[in-house]
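### Sample
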Amino acid sequence: MKKLFLPLFCLVIIHCGKSEKIADAAVIMEMPANDTDKAFLKEEAPPPPPNRISEKIASNNNSSSSQVNPSISKKIIKNGDLKIQVGDIKKAQDQVSSIVKSNKAYIQKEEFQNNDNEENIDLTIRVPHQNFDALVNSFSDGVGSVLSKNISSDDVTEEYTDVSIKLANKKIYLEKYRDMLKSAKTTKDILEIQENIRELEDEIDVSEGRLRFIDDRVNYSTLNLSLYKEKVRTSATSKVGFGSRFGDSVTEGWNSFVAFLLGVISLWPFFLLIPVAVFLWRKWRNRKKK
């Protein structure tokens, strides 16, 4: 009897152990996954595409924009103002024309003034930058007496470089927009791309115009030349001898006398009224006595 009971007891224990393992497995399968497991198993969703077309262009163009760094030489703009006193305006003007021609320059603007005291010619001269100093020296040494001289140099390399970099980037953006316009599907996208293209084209025109202006001022320097002739010298400003000063004083005195005489003559209508006024006054006085 004991021999039969022992094997049956072992079979019951083994069967119970298997049942517990199966039940535990079933419980594990039925348990809901916690938050950590959900986060681990959940597939990460891709980020939404950008809404604005300009953001797409910017994301595609970051690397190419950072590589735009043109090598630009020094950009120096030279300007000058020169005033020269001459003895003969016509002769000085001929000398200026010869000097301008020999230095491959040209006269951009010319103004002439003539009054009782002086003659004055104002010239705006454009000259290649490499001939600027030679032109100024030729005027200073061979035309007349220099009354004033002002020469300035302006370094615009930084501005030119900045405008050039921005212009290159804008052209890259413009090409990207044109490529996107070919593949645009909706009317909204087409209108937005066309507006961006129009704005970029306007900005490019402005930048290119600024660069052309700077190049023109760098390649051709500007000199403002004034030729001055004093007609009547005074003793205070004249640098000649006593005889010339004495002659100038006599001339000035005579001119003053002539001016006074002409002024008196211009009052002749009032002189005609004086006898009439005296006659009427005497007549009124005689009547009063009677």
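The chain is about 60% helix and 20% strand. This sample (DUF4349 domain-containing protein) is used throughout the tutorial notebook.
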